[in-house]
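Appendix B, Record 12. Input sequence as logged:
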Amino acid sequence: MKKLTDKTTLMDEDAMNRAIRRIAHEILERNQGASDLMLVGIRSRGVPLAEKLQGFIEEIENVKLPLGILDISLYRDDLSTLSDSPIVKPSSIPEDLNGKTVILVDDVLFTGRTILAALDAIMDMGRPKAIELAVLIDRGHREFPIRADFVGKNVPTSKKELISVQVAGIDAQNAVVLKAIEE
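Logged structural output:
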């Protein structure tokens, strides 16, 4: 049985906010403003991060970007190994994504399987002009040729470690925690 031991806080709430604000600036710089952008958060912790990005972009550009919520459960290639009866929640894309630049938002980029599933789900909904990926943490260990366009923090890890992004509303606090996994 695997057991979690020792934990280290990598980012507190202030550090998370600084990283998300920086990502907001980078998104606006790369896209020369906010026109034709749409944020799409991947359930579950990608959604509150996308909401934070939306708030910072509104603060900077005085424009409230459309915000979608994406559930990728049925697109996962490992669905049968996760649960016999997975809980699928609805996706909500507020407007047509055809011709838009979609900023896909997630908490941790690890193997790339979640992002691959999200790309499949988005392409089933339409044909965006481009899809850019924003993640709070990139921990390495990719199994697919996927990279983030915007990264809050790169954290090289071993496979015997777990990164937990905690967000208020789902968790008790806003923090990024590194935990060791003991076998």
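The chain has one domain: 3-75+89-182.
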